[in-house]
Amino acid sequence: MTERVGTEPSIFTRILRGEIPSEIVLQTDDVFVIRDIAPQAPIHLLVIPKADEYADVVELAAGDPKLLASMVEVARVAASQAGAADFRLIFNTGVGAGQTVFHVHAHVLATRFGGLAEATMAGGLPDGEEA
Ligand code: 5GP
User: Fold this and answer.
1) Minimal CA–CA distance to 12: which of 57, 59, 61, 46?
2) Whose alpha carbon is nearest atom 15 of ligand 1?
């Protein structure tokens, strides 16, 4: 599953180091959260382990399930902090599924006043909401 080549730091490691600008909106000892640069929903956050040893969620679940559980809890807190109680949590896994950064990360997708399902079922996003 690993597509990473060589030992170049991932884009997320470079953000964590401050080499690429991106506001860290929440962090713990092990995990940090940024806003996705190309949001696909009104709330689109990335929850990322500070260590880059796992390329995707399959590797992470096998190697450090506690860290995976921490990511889920941080996702919950970050969504709540952004104004969403309900959210979609997505791990693109492998090139064929759209994964482009091989430093495991979770996408947190939501609207500000509810979950994405509500927006979809209502026929679209609330007025004024932009992706
Ligand atoms: P993937 O496609 O691997 O599941 O997700 C990678 C995500 O990282 C994409 O949604 C992409 O928009 C986001 N991304 C890539 N480069 C940057 C960046 O420099 N800053 C931020 N904030 N997000 C980025």
Assistant:
1) 46
2) 37
